[in-house]
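Exercise 7. Given the encoded structure of a 221-residue chain, write a plausible sequence.
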């Protein structure tokens, strides 16, 4: 009986947590459905299907709004569970803290601006002969830019001096691949983090910053 009560209480706590971040978990549900759909496609059809929803240079030139929205609804890796964990750790925390509207603004800004800047850099490289012409059709779908932006804005959720350590770790985590690989995706990730850091005004008035040494996280609702 006690075990049943604990399970019921645990399930209730999970349900309350999910309801406290509706945008995060609706988005995650969409990603689950689209990931299942991808697993039922042949490799050839999947590649063609995703390219039509890709924010590559060609598609951005023809249908910028459509592909910016569509590309955020698919995971090209086909692995949903890691994103479920990342969404719970970062997106859900940011949404509960900022509120759904402000959280969504951060996601949209990071996803759209990082995409446009990174693809703009790729276009410049193509025109300069640094990248092959075929790069205009490069597959580029996914939710990682929005995630990087949210990780950036969460800097302001943490009290100083801990926030500086957190920001340094995030910037190093995304900056090292840019220094070593220098791909347009690496540039997009760093850009998204910087956009998240630039969303400081959205964090104003959202409660006392969390100090890991003093208090547990207090959630605004």
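Solution.
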């Amino acid at each position: 009986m006690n075990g049943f009560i604990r399970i019921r209480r645990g399930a209730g706590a999970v349900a309350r947590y999910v309801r406290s971040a509706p945008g995060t978990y609706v988005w995650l549900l969409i990603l689950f459905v689209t990931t299942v759909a991808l697993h039922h496609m042949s490799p050839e059809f999947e590649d063609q299907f995703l390219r039509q929803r890709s924010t590559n240079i060609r598609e951005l030139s023809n249908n910028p709004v459509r592909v910016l929205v569509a590309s955020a609804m698919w995971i090209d890796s086909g692995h949903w569970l890691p994103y479920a964990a990342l969404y719970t750790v970062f997106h859900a925390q940011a949404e509960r803290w900022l509120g759904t509207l402000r959280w969504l603004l951060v996601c949209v800004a990071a996803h759209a601006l990082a995409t446009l800047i990174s693809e703009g850099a790729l276009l410049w490289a193509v025109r300069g002969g640094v990248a092959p012409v075929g790069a205009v059709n490069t597959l580029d779908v996914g939710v990682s830019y929005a995630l990087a932006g949210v990780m950036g804005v969460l800097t302001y959720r943490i009290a100083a001096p801990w926030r500086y350590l957190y920001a340094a770790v995030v910037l190093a985590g995304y900056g090292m691949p840019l220094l070593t690989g220098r791909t347009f995706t690496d540039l997009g990730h760093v850009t998204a983090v910087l956009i998240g850091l630039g969303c400081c005004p959205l964090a104003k008035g959202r409660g006392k910053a969390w100090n890991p040494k003093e208090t547990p996280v207090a959630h605004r609702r």
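Remark. The chain has a mean pLDDT of 90. Students should compare their own answers with the one above.
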